[in-house]
Write a sequence for this structure.
């Protein structure tokens, strides 16, 4: 297994409402640019999942 980088947040996801809310809570207090990139990544994954 690879070790996660110290500046990453493990466990982000959107499989259901609870997981999505947990993801947002985990991103609280992070750098706004990081929050934006993380959410954009999740949106991209969601779009690929539903298409």
């Amino acid at each position: 297994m690879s070790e996660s980088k110290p500046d990453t947040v493990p466990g982000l996801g959107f499989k259901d409402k609870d997981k999505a809310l947990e993801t947002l809570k985990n991103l609280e207090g992070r750098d706004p640019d990081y929050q934006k990139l993380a959410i954009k990544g999740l949106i991209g994954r969601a779009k690929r999942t539903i298409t």
In short: The first helix runs from residue 17 to 27. The two ends are 30 Å apart (CA to CA). Residues 17-50 form one domain. Helices lie at 17-27, 32-50.
